[in-house]
Design brief:
heterodimer; A: mainly alpha; about 85% helix; B: alpha+beta; Arc Repressor Mutant, subunit A; 4-stranded antiparallel sheet; globular
Chain lengths: ~100, ~140
């Protein structure tokens, strides 16, 4: 299968986004551990669901999809659907973090 | 390695925000202004601030780098921490002991004089762990 320049640029951009997201989530998680903060733990989880998981899914499907036989339904319906669901879960987790009383 | 942040400031003035935040802090109490100026006049205190700008060092590292005794470092560092010019952190070692590291908070220090008062304003640099600053930011919401 021929890989177009556009697909390579998309993959590169996704990997950059993934790296930045992992960096931020990692520091949120470290902050949660060091300060024993439930709110920060929820923030780290929410950011992970919101940023890392959807990007990782799209990279995985783009890179491995053809090899494991993901059909066009998978790419145009199931992939975006699962991404949205993870994003909803992430946003709910962020909301939970905001609603937790400070200092917990 | 486990690092925890000490609550700073007992003496000089009350800081309202967490350890990791940055900004400007005004020192207006006469006694505190005198203490800050006295510390700046002290060559050992200045050496500690210079050496720990941008890098957290232990008392023995400061002692080696500045050529002063460890007890001098502790005496000056305690006063600097009380004034909020220095941040102290406790680092736990795997064998169950712990030691302190020190890092300068001072980016810039302004003295303003009017007929009413002598004020010192400290512009603080961001110090400390990114995770701690992130926590302060989020918990401060």
């Amino acid at each position: 299968m021929a890989v177009t320049t556009g697909e390579l640029v998309l993959l590169a951009a996704s990997l950059v986004a993934l790296g930045l997201a992992l960096f931020i989530v990692f520091h949120a998680y470290r902050g949660a551990r060091r300060n024993d903060s439930q709110r920060m733990f929820a923030l780290a989880t929410g950011l992970c669901l919101l940023t890392v998981v959807p990007t990782a899914l799209s990279v995985a499907v783009t890179a491995l999809g053809p090899a494991v036989g993901v059909g066009s339904d998978g790419r145009t319906l199931y992939l975006p659907l699962s991404q949205r669901l993870f994003e909803i879960a992430g946003l709910v987790t962020l909301l939970y973090s905001l609603l937790l009383s400070p200092g917990r | 390695m486990d690092v925890s942040v000490h609550s700073e400031t007992a003496g000089c003035h009350k800081r309202q925000r967490g350890v990791g935040t940055t900004g400007a802090v005004a020192v207006s109490d006469d006694r505190d202004v005198a203490e800050v100026l006295a510390l700046l006049d002290d060559e050992y205190a200045r050496a500690i601030l210079r050496q720990t700008s941008g890098e957290a060092l232990s008392a023995s590292e400061i002692s080696d780098a500045c050529g002063m005794s460890v007890s001098t470092v502790y005496r000056r560092a305690d006063r600097l921490v009380d004034c909020g010019l220095l941040v102290e952190r406790t680092v736990a070692t795997p064998d169950g002991n712990h030691y302190s590291t020190y890092e300068s908070r001072v980016e810039e220090l302004t003295v303003s004089i009017s007929t009413d008062s002598v004020d010192v304003r400290v512009t603080e640099r961001p110090v400390g762990d990114l995770g701690d600053r992130f926590t302060d930011l989020w918990e401060g919401l």
